Amino acid sequence: MRRVMFHWKHRIWLAVTAAIMAVVAFLGAGPLGQTMELYEHATISGELDDVWRVATDVAGWPQWDPHEEAGEIYGPFVAGTTAFSKPRGGPAAHWELIEVTEHQSWSLINTMRIGTLEVDNRYTQLPDGQVKCEKIMRVSGWILTTLFKLHFEAATRKDMQATWAALEREIG
């Protein structure tokens, strides 16, 4: 009878896979397809028209947003237009606008091999020259969800707040 030997690379792969599955179970990432949601908001000084103009100028993001290294949009800022952005210290992202409601909200989807990221951005004019900025991120796919829970969530929340502070300075 012949004994089957696993190559050391296969053993490492099996160990890593088992570790990831254990972490996913421990963190409650759940079965394939479960979505993780992050919500952050801030109130900044400014007028909605100015916030909208700066926040939807994708190519201009790197000039004021400490989170963005590059940004490019391939058409008008309307649903169906595709774009590219590169966060500092993160991977480049190709995404599509899936909803744009002028001076109120815009949403994007970034479909990757390891999962999907959907982002809703909302802006509401408040009294006394204040604007409420909200962002909802939905992360799906067990690999991407696990990466977000283990590595990206805290930094992403911090980056959202830094972006809104920078936006307030930019329009001020």
Concise description?
This protein is of the alpha+beta class and 172 residues long. The protein has helices at 8-27, 48-55, 61-64, 142-171, and strands spanning 35-45, 68-73, 82-87, 93-101, 105-112, 115-126, 130-140.
Description:
The chain has helices at residues 8-27, 48-55, 61-64, 142-171; strands at 35-45, 68-73, 82-87, 93-101, 105-112, 115-126, 130-140. The chain has a single domain, classed as 2-Layer Sandwich (Alpha-D-Glucose-1,6-Bisphosphate, Chain A, domain 4), CATH 3.30.530. Strands 1-7-6-5-4-3-2 form a seven-stranded antiparallel beta sheet. Helices cover 36% and strands 37% of the residues.
Q: Classify the fold: give the CATH topology.
A: Alpha-D-Glucose-1,6-Bisphosphate, Chain A, domain 4
Domain unit count: 1
Which ranges are low-confidence, i.e. pLDDT below 50, for 5 or more consecutive residues? none
User: What is the name of the CATH superfamily?
Assistant: START domain
Topology, number of strands:
7
Structural class: alpha+beta
CATH class term = Alpha Beta
Helix content: 25-40%
Q: Give the neighbour order of strands across the main sheet.
A: 1-7-6-5-4-3-2
